[in-house]
Every structure is written in C-alpha cells, then in structure tokens.
Amino acid sequence: IRGGKLMITYTRKNDAGKYVCVGTNMVGERESEVAELTVLERPSFVKRPSNLAVTVDDSAEFKCEARGDPVPTVRWRKDDGELPKARYEIRDDHTLKIRKVMAGDMGSYTCVAENMVGKAEASATLTVQGISAP
C-alpha cells in the first residue's frame, strides 16, 4: 500500500510471521527492523453437542470440541446453571456425561468455549423419556 504501509485484510493463521519493510531508490536499499505478526483466533466449534432423548436411569453424553488460539477453556452449564450434582463427569475431551438420568435433568445444556480473544457457545436439549404424567 502507498507510503510504506502494509495492510492485511481477513488475516489467517498462516499470515503470522516476521515482516520487514524494504525501501529502495537509485542510491540503495534500506530495511526496517523486523516486525512480528501474531494471529490469534476466536474459539469455534469442531464438534457441537447434539440433542438427545434418553430413558430414565440411562446415561446421556454430549460431545463438544472447540479450537482457537490461545487454546480455549471449555465448560458446561445447564439452563438453570446447575449440572446434576454427583451424577455428571466432564471427560478430558470435554464430553459431558450424565449418569442415571432423571426427569429433572431435562433441559438445555450449553458448552462454553472461551479464550482471551472471545467466547463461543453451543447448546443441545436433553429430553427424558419414560416419565409418567402426574
């Protein structure tokens, strides 16, 4: 761009690196100091949770995989905020498993991926079958 300015629109990860401005005229050439460009990435989902319908006392598993730079932290929440006490586990791959599903577990479960650049959320609904009407 005119005036020795460099503008990169729609940056990508492979735009990261070291850049040098080189000025030339009929008497010679001169280089600027090195400028390093780091490209960070907002969290995005590689795998989103899917809606589930399970029977009472079965297990339910919601998968969630996120990427970003820096690597995002991933957490889960239920629509009312509380995950089923003592009956859930979050595995190393961020899968949420709920054991011995009960009627009160029905609702929306949200996977939240967050890093210093941004935040992304993906939700799925758990429906519990085999519940008799009061």
Automatic annotation (TrEMBL):
<dbReference type="InterPro" id="IPR003599">
    <property type="entry name" value="Ig_sub"/>
</dbReference>
<dbReference type="GO" id="GO:0035385">
    <property type="term" value="P:Roundabout signaling pathway"/>
</dbReference>
<dbReference type="Pfam" id="PF07679">
    <property type="entry name" value="I-set"/>
</dbReference>
<dbReference type="GO" id="GO:0016199">
    <property type="term" value="P:axon midline choice point recognition"/>
</dbReference>
<dbReference type="InterPro" id="IPR007110">
    <property type="entry name" value="Ig-like_dom"/>
</dbReference>
<keyword id="KW-0677">Repeat</keyword>
<dbReference type="InterPro" id="IPR032986">
    <property type="entry name" value="Robo1_Ig-like3"/>
</dbReference>
<dbReference type="InterPro" id="IPR036179">
    <property type="entry name" value="Ig-like_dom_sf"/>
</dbReference>
<feature type="domain" description="Ig-like">
    <location>
        <begin position="43"/>
        <end position="127"/>
    </location>
</feature>
<dbReference type="InterPro" id="IPR003598">
    <property type="entry name" value="Ig_sub2"/>
</dbReference>
<dbReference type="InterPro" id="IPR013098">
    <property type="entry name" value="Ig_I-set"/>
</dbReference>
<keyword id="KW-0732">Signal</keyword>
<dbReference type="InterPro" id="IPR013783">
    <property type="entry name" value="Ig-like_fold"/>
</dbReference>
<keyword id="KW-1015">Disulfide bond</keyword>
<protein>
    <submittedName>
        <fullName>Roundabout 1</fullName>
    </submittedName>
</protein>
<dbReference type="GO" id="GO:0008046">
    <property type="term" value="F:axon guidance receptor activity"/>
</dbReference>
<keyword id="KW-0393">Immunoglobulin domain</keyword>
<dbReference type="InterPro" id="IPR051170">
    <property type="entry name" value="Neural/epithelial_adhesion"/>
</dbReference>
